[in-house]
Amino acid sequence: YEMYIKTLHFWYEDQLKDDRQIEGITGKTLASFQDRNVKQLLYRLSKYNVAMLADSVGLGKTISAIGVIKQYRILKQRVVVVCPASLVLQWREELAEAGMYEVQVLSVQNKVEIENTMTIDKYASIGLYVIDEAHNLRNSSSVRYKQLTEWISNNTDSHTLLLTATPINNSLSDLSNQILLGSAGDQDILPVNFKNDQGIIKQISFSEAIDNIIKRINQVKKRSENITTEEQNKRLEAVYKETREYIDPIMRAFVVRNTRDGIEREFGGVEINGVLKTFPKVEMNNITFNLDHIV
Fold first, then answer.
1. HEC states along 117-131?
2. β-bridge partners, 159
3. What does the DSSP 8-state code read for residue 59?
């Protein structure tokens, strides 16, 4: 029984600490799932220095992020938001509405503005970076990625909150590259027990584990070129099952994610002005066309 309880505490420690009190946002009310988002993100930020909010599109990631920002501003910590140029005005308005005019919002495309802002760090170090649309920075060889990694590494005590609805776009490396951006390249923040091809389990970094998983998937695909489709699918299914065993703990460590279906199952919907609202249901209908009369 004690081992069972210890296991539950290991995997769900962040949820067991949901009773922490957080400061509200001026002019805004957090939904129940957003309130929980803030608490779980604060837990991850304090433990790993980096966290990712990956709620589905339309679930108010900005509001949850502002809830996190509020807790850092209470402690008088400097906060910088980095986002696409198209979102700069929206962020400034949302922060102003919440009474946090002093939070600086920068365009990720404006290299010069970022460089100028970095010069202030020697007088006031940054406590929290918020990087919106973080999936745009999944390429670790890009100029923007390298600039932000250097900036974060220069503020050694900073935390980084990543916002994206799509943590994985084309490859599992998208996830590890974004986490490494937020950790300023620190691969050792989360060790993973990984079984190599010889069946030996050794502890490696989370990013190395993801790299090894990608290699295994590619090897299985290459070796499956001259076998039947059924056998190929069987091998891929096995490697994908193994992939989940490694990816799930990594996702739990860094990522907070909600979906509409999940929110309705857990909370029944979203409470707005004291009224519980459910999300609109999408219905798909087939429409047929008769094109016989077109010559």
1. HHHHHHCCCEEEEEE
2. 128
3. S
Given the DSSP bridges, would you call strands 191-195 and 201-205 parallel, antiparallel or unpaired? Answer: antiparallel
Interaxial angle between packed helices 173-182 and 206-223, expressed in degrees from 0 to 180 and rounded to the nearest 10: 170
As a whole number of Å, the end-to-end CA separation of the chain is 75
- Indicate the length of the chain as a whole number: 295
CB 52 within 8 A of CB 160: no
List alpha helices for the chain, DSSP H.
Answer: 2-16, 32-48, 61-74, 88-97, 111-118, 143-154, 173-182, 206-223, 229-254, 260-267
Distance in angstroms (rounded) separating the CA atoms of residues 44 and 63: 18
**CA–CA distance, 135 with 280 (Å, rounded to integer):** 27
Give the angle subtended at the CA of 105 by the CAs of 103 and 110, to the nearest 5°: 150
| Residues sharing a CB contact under 8 Å with residue 124, sequence separation 6 or more, in sequence order | 78
Angle at 38 (CA atoms; ends 81, 43), nearest 5 degrees: 100
Using one digit for the tens of pLDDT, what is the confidence trace for 216-250?
888 887 776 777 778 878 888 888 888 888 889 99
Read off the DSSP letter of residue 282: P
Q: By the 8 A CB rule, do 43 and 16 touch?
A: no
Written as six digits, the tokens of 157 are: 């005590």
User: 246-273 pLDDT, tens per residue?
Assistant: 889 999 999 999 999 999 999 888 877 7
* Burial environment of residue 232 by CB neighbours within 10 A (0 to 12, 13 to 18, 19 or more): middle
Q: Model pTM greater than 0.90? A: no
Tokens representing 177 are 């590259």
